[in-house]
Amino acid sequence: MIENNTREKEEKELSGNSRRDFLKKSSVITAIALTPVAAVKASDLKLDEKLSDAIEQMPLSIEINGQQHNLKVEPRTTLLDLLRERLKLTGTKKGCDQGQCGACTVHIDGVRALSCLQLAVMNDGAKITTIEGLSDGDKLHPMQEAFIKHDGFQCGYCTPGQIMSAVACIHEGHANSETEIREFMSGNICRCGAYANIVNAIKEVKEGGAI
Amino acid sequence: MNNFQYKRVSSPAAAIAELSKDPAAKLVAGGTNLIDLMKYGVMAPDKLVDVNHLSFDAIKKEERSLYIGATVRNAVAAGNADVLKYQPLLSQAMLAGASAQLRNKATMGGNLLQRTRCGYFYDISAPCNKRVPGSGCAALEGYNRMHAIFGASSSCIAVNPSDMNVALTALDATILVSGPKGDRKIPVSEFHRLPGTHPELDTTLDRKEIITGLVIPDNNFAAHTTYLKVRDRISYAFALISVAVAIDLDGTAIRDIRLAMGGVAHKPWRLTEAEQLLKGKQATVENFKMAAELAMKGAKAYEHNAFKLKLAPNTMIQALKTASGVKA
Ligand SMILES: Cc1cc2nc3c(=O)[nH]c(=O)nc-3n(C[C@H](O)[C@H](O)[C@H](O)COP(=O)(O)OP(=O)(O)OC[C@H]3O[C@@H](n4cnc5c(N)ncnc54)[C@H](O)[C@@H]3O)c2cc1C
Ligand code: FES
Ligand code: FES
Is residue A43 lining ligand 2, measured as CB closer than 6 Å? Predict the structure, then answer.
């Protein structure tokens, strides 16, 4: 928490400065760094870190599960890493990190996508829903209920991705038959092989018409 | 992933300017191929230019053709009413590719330029002329099960992995591009290239050019199209062999036909001679077999992909049967 606060404060301090300003300051810092005293002082003030932050970080305004976040991120930060490492929303899982397993599935502006292949900066202004944002407070989403009822998981690692994908599958209108469900859920791999139960859960929610 | 600069552009001119001034810059659209390759260290652009805010997101039925913008998502195009009505083969091929999540982000431009899935291209410790020109080709003597049977060279035997591109090739699409010297149109058959001695070049697109969209001319194929994809599992895998068929059928007579194959070459493989053979003939299994035999002329297998020499004609015959409705 303390760390987070410090970080946010630093971000605020930096936000008024353009990249060019910092490049200018960079040469100043290189110059003062020649004197040992100044070098110690610079390191005390974490100037180096601030400098690299400012050069490499970009502003990002993103809504996650209804909450607005104004952040600065490195361009290479994936949406998945932003969620898990920075915002501690660890419900979204990292399986392969290569687009091959679906564990990282989230909704971006209501559409399912793989957060491991999304750069966070490309989602400036977007609304993200993760598994943490699916339930209505303590009341589980009907798809979450159905996964529990039908044993739609064993180890549970793929489950957040499966559930996010399953909700989208129904919204897209791609859950009209077992074959269609299987085809449109094929981007979510379950190493425990809970597929039959997952299909049953989706069928029930679809037929129940709750979503 | 190496760090890089990120720049959002709002005009094609700005995108072209970025590419012109920085040889190590790359465009990013859906990111589903490029980000993956950057994680593996296969590609390391120092700047990403985000084209998602360019206004190339329309699908328009024009007088004699269908236009699809470069940033239209694959899922959107595949479900679009005009695409389904006028070019159902394209929709079928796109739905056979990747997964729902990936198709929601993947764009037309990005799919046209997606890079090979050759394992040695991805493995930065292996020689690969496509990744590092002049370093050699590990696939030639390696595990080349997924590799080419047509048009390969001693420099590269990788295949183009796209499903969409196979359909676009069968449908004679034209790719619309824009660059520092202005706009030009590239027939899809001339867009992707064979490896020759320069496998590092997948296409004839210049480094400073951007894709703005594509156009598919109207045709009479909509009632008889099939995209048949054979892969190691039933969904969410790249093609071992795929065949795109579009037939203009008059009763049982083939008035016109288009055939293209995927998973067999460095570019989508149009089967012109087989088309010529079938044009004007009856849709019979016998004729399909003859066409398949002709299509396989010149095919060459490597140590691990000889199965493709059988799988390819069989897939072609099956696709022709399905598209024409001929049973036996
Ligand atoms: C696990 C997995 C499975 C897959 N399975 C399949 C499959 O079965 N079949 C299949 O066909 N595909 C498959 N794909 C690939 C997928 O279709 C491609 O990744 C996607 O089409 C690329 O589009 P994109 O917009 O995300 O491209 P990006 O990754 O954004 O870009 C790809 C390339 O295109 C360039 N580019 C993008 N837009 C433009 C433009 N407008 N002008 C010029 N250059 C541009 C970029 O610079 C980059 O070099 C799979 C991908 C994954 C990760
Ligand atoms: S972690 Fe994103 S698809 Fe596997
Ligand atoms: S429940 Fe274990 S991976 Fe799906």
Answer: no
Domain extent for A113: 58-133
Q: Give the integer Cα–Cα distance in Å for A55 and B243.
A: 49
Q: Which of A73, A100, A133 is the last residue of a domain?
A: A133
Mean pLDDT, range B52-78, rounded to an integer: 98
B149 and B301 in contact (C-beta within 8 Å)?
A: yes
Nearest-angstrom CA–CA distance, B126 and A157: 33
Tokens of B107: 């764009």
Residues contacting A141, CB < 8 A, separation 6+: A134, A135, A163, A167, A211
Range A5-15 burial, b when 16+ CB lie within 10 A, else e: eeeeebbeebe
Is B125 an 8 Å CB contact of chain A?
A: no
- B201-235 residue pLDDT tens: 999 999 999 999 999 999 999 999 999 999 999 99
- The residue to mutate among A96, A147, A148, A158, having the most atoms of ligand 3 within 8 angstroms of its beta carbon, is A158
Q: Among the atoms of ligand 2, which is closest to the Cα of residue A97?
A: 1
Sign (positive or negative) of CA dihedral B149, B152, B155, B158: negative
Tell me the pLDDT tens digit for each residue of A51-92: 555 557 999 999 999 999 999 999 999 999 999 999 999 999
Please report the number of interchain residue pairs, chain A to chain B, with beta-carbon separation below 8 angstroms: 80
Chain A contact for B36 (CB, 8 A cutoff): yes
Distance A95 CA to ligand 2 centre (A): 5
pLDDT at A46: 61
CA distance B30 to chain A (A): 8
ipTM surpasses 0.85: yes
Residue A14: the pLDDT is 41
Cβ of residue A130 closer than 8 Å to a chain B Cβ? no
- Per domain, the residue ranges of chain B are 225-324
Q: What is the pTM of this model?
A: 0.91
Between A75, A118, A165, which is nearest B6 by CB? A75
Pick among 3.30.390.50, 3.40.50.300, 3.90.960.10, 3.30.428.10: CATH of B225-324: 3.30.390.50
A22 lines ligand 3 (CB under 6 A): no
